[in-house]
Design goal:
This protein is of the alpha+beta class and 347 residues long. 59% of the residues lie in helices and 17% in strands.
Length: 347
């Protein structure tokens, strides 16, 4: 099941990043191949519309294809976990090599050999290298910030904090302290990566955004729009199902199965940019704190997933039935909260 999520997540991410990478490399590719060149460079008569088509091929479709094929290769977890410099160098070399080969091949078909031989190959190679470095840099920065946060920082969407209604999912690895005490540090770090990998793939598959990693867990959010309440619920259900599916494998690897607890809540938050030397988009508000407290109450009631009454009502309004008879806990005093709340255990 996790492999299907990974494939869909990667295809969605590739399309988004490939579009921007294609546009970026398209500007440089057209500068190299089409700028200042007349119709006489082609081996046959070509109309202005066809000339535009060739420019589109060189400038957009080929870079998009290269980016897509290369990102599919990079979906392997071992490659993704290479050190930053090694992975970046591999990306730059691969993108530059494939783009150069395709440009030369297509150029040999479309352009007259005499003119192709006179082409400024050094400049072409330099531009290809610039494209590769630019594409890799953009991808790497987006990996560290997250694609959604990267796009929002670049566009300045949250330069000034704004209020937004969101759904918060707070996930925590169960028994992490015991794991940390019984496993070597490097082994425990690998355990956290395995757990977070499963969690983030499910969140992304259900169109959520990973906001922050918190030690042995993470915070994810969705806009509080129709359909997203079911997606947030399904994301947590899929995480539990995937951990159960990999139970034997994880038990063999870490001596015990991995389990988690989670809290779901919805409400207003402030979203805005933080910092000047290092930029980060932060979420503030009682909604985030309440989701964390709800997750903390899972141990008290011995359940895997708890949600607030507000979230449960919105989930039910979408037609989702979270169990035949969900357990309801009235007047629960959450740590750090003055008012008692009503919690619902979801399956």
């Amino acid at each position: 099941m996790i492999q299907q999520k990974i494939l869909r997540n990667n295809l969605r991410r590739i399309l988004r990043s490939g579009l921007s990478s294609g546009l970026l490399s398209g500007l440089l590719a057209n500068a190299v191949y089409l700028s200042g060149l007349g119709r006489s460079v082609f081996t046959f008569s070509i109309s202005p519309l066809a000339l535009f088509g060739v420019g589109f091929l060189f400038g957009f479709l080929i870079p998009l294809l290269v980016r897509t094929l290369f990102d599919i290769v990079l979906t392997h977890r071992r490659i993704k976990r290479l050190p930053y410099l090694a992975k970046s160098a591999l990306r730059v070399l691969a993108i530059a090599a494939v783009m150069s080969a395709i440009y030369l091949l297509v150029g040999a078909v479309f352009f007259r050999p005499a003119l192709l031989a006179q082409a400024p190959l050094a400049f072409t190679g330099l531009m290809t290298a610039v494209v590769a470095v630019a594409v890799v840099t953009r991808s790497t920065v987006a990996e560290f910030l997250g694609p959604e946060f990267f796009r929002n920082i670049v566009t300045g969407r949250y330069h000034l904090a704004r209020e937004q209604d969101v759904i918060i999912l707070f996930i925590d690895l169960k028994g992490s302290t015991s794991f940390a005490e019984s496993l070597p540090a490097a082994w425990f770090f690998q355990l956290l990566n395995d757990f977070l990998y499963i969690a983030e793939q499910s969140v992304q598959y259900h169109r959520g955004t990973v906001y922050k990693y918190l030690g042995d867990g993470l915070i994810a959010y969705w806009p509080a729009a129709a359909g997203n309440f079911s997606r947030a619920h399904d994301a947590m259900r899929d995480i539990s199902a995937e951990l159960a599916e990999q139970r034997d494998e994880l038990t063999t690897k870490y001596w015990r199965p991995l389990e988690c607890t989670a809290g779901l809540h919805c409400g207003p938050v402030l979203i805005g940019e933080l910092g000047s030397i290092r930029k980060e988009i932060g979420l503030w508000g009682d909604t985030v704190n309440t989701a964390q407290r709800i997750q903390g109450a899972c141990r008290q009631f011995d359940v895997t997933l708890l949600c607030s009454r507000e979230f449960h009502d919105r989930l039910a309004a979408e037609g989702t039935t979270p169990g035949a008879s969900p357990r309801v806990f009235e007047d629960v005093a959450l740590r750090g909260k003055e008012k008692a709340v009503t919690l619902v255990a979801l399956e």
